[in-house]
């Protein structure tokens, strides 16, 4: 029987050759936001490895929006060129280059995981962070600055300019990062947003910032190219953002022209209780797809070919995003196709390994 995972997915003018995407993964390897040969080889090898879509790591729209000082960025034109080279290579492998645009808000200015992941002091190259409200992620962190209306407008404008650069860089899929406790999610969740103005309080107010960013991105992003939004479908915490709100937001995003909801979860608060296990986030992709009738992506502890195949074949999600397993095996697309006996084109250089 033909593989569902290795069937093409057409979204607007782009056809992914299969439903396996490489989930965005920070590499903490950029200098001043610039991509380099590490990013070329990391992203490029996963493209030659058979995935249909390669989403570049959370790429910051401004220096202060970086999770770590070593994040990629698109806040200046000079940052475009290396990404053009990477994207040309990805396309040469018959894969599709995507970008995740992000702002880390109160979670910015953090060290790379191998340096402990906690706040980088200003004298060591860190910076003051911004957020909807002056509530730090860790109690021991300095409080972020609550964005005023001008500050909000600046972030929105930064997303617009970064999108323009992303188009110039040749990306073909845009993903807006509204998950994992970063700035948009900080506005969505009542646990991090205690504002009393038009951006806080009611559901309509908490989603306003995300909707304004989506509109700013759409002003620059070509209408015929796919637009994804990654959300955390729940905070896994009492009083937090939840699945019902995610469904309601997804419905609005669909009306606004978003093509796919990439359903992740968590990251908003330290008191989250996550029942981690294989497929643990798949029910979110499934509920949003069923309730809203929008394409969804499933992510999180999807590590096996048969598991990924079942998710797509049973209609729980339209796309499977894999992160860590693709670090273990950059040729994950080739491996999964082999296991599922799906007939796919291998890079000609590798064909002698195709059994
Ligand atoms: C991640 N993740 C992540 N998510 C995201 O939306 N933007 C990002 O830049 C990153 N960065 C990142 C770096 C690294 C090294 C890892 C391992 C993970 C989360 C990732 O995309 C994915 O959602 C989770 O890892 C769950 O999927 P897996 O790893 O179980 O397949």
UniProtKB/TrEMBL annotation:
Signal peptide positions are none
**Record has Flavoprotein as a keyword:** yes
Oxidoreductase found in the keyword field: yes
Q: Mind telling me which InterPro entries this protein's record contains?
A: Aldolase_TIM, OxRdtase_FMN_N, YqjM-like
| Sorted UniProt keywords | Flavoprotein, FMN, NADP, Oxidoreductase
Cofactor(s) named in the record: FMN
User: In what residue span(s) does the NADH:flavin oxidoreductase/NADH oxidase N-terminal domain sit?
Assistant: 5-341
List the PANTHER family: NADPH DEHYDROGENASE C23G7.10C-RELATED
- Name-wise, this protein is NADH:flavin oxidoreductase/NADH oxidase
């Amino acid at each position: 029987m033909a593989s569902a995972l290795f069937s093409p997915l057409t979204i607007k003018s782009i056809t992914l050759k299969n439903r396996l995407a490489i989930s965005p993964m920070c590499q903490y390897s950029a200098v001043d936001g610039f991509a380099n040969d590490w990013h070329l080889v990391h992203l490029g090898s996963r493209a030659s490895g058979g995935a249909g879509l390669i989403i570049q790591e959370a790429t910051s729209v401004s220096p202060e929006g970086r999770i770590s000082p070593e994040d990629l960025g698109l806040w200046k034109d000079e940052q475009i060129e290396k990404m053009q080279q990477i994207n040309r290579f990805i396309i040469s492998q018959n894969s599709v280059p995507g970008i995740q645009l992000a702002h880390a808000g109160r979670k910015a200015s953090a060290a790379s995981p191998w340096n402990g992941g906690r706040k980088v002091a200003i004298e060591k190259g860190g910076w003051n962070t911004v957020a909807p409200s002056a509530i730090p992620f860790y109690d021991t962190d300095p409080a972020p600055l609550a964005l005023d209306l001008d500050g909000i407008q600046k972030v929105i404008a930064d997303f617009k300019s970064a999108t323009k650069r992303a188009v110039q860089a040749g990306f073909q899929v845009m993903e807006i990062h509204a998950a994992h406790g970063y700035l948009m999610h900080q506005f969505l969740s009542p646990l991090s947003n205690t504002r009393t103005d038009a951006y806080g309080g009611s559901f309509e107010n908490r989603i306003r910032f995300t909707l304004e960013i989506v509109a700013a991105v759409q002003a620059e992003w070509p209408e015929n190219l796919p637009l994804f939004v990654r959300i955390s479908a729940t905070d896994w915490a009492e009083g937090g953002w939840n699945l019902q709100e995610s469904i309601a937001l997804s419905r609005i995003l669909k009306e606004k022209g978003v093509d796919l909801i990439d359903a992740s979860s968590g990251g908003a608060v330290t008191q989250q209780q996550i029942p981690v296990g294989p497929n643990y986030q798949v029910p979110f992709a499934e509920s949003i797809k069923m309730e809203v009738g929008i394409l969804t992506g499933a992510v999180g502890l999807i590590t096996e070919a048969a598991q990924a195949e079942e998710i797509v074949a049973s209609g729980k999600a339209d796309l499977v995003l894999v992160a860590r397993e693709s670090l273990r095996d950059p040729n994950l697309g080739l491996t999964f196709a082999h296991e599922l006996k799906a007939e796919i084109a291998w890079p000609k250089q590798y064909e002698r390994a195709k059994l």
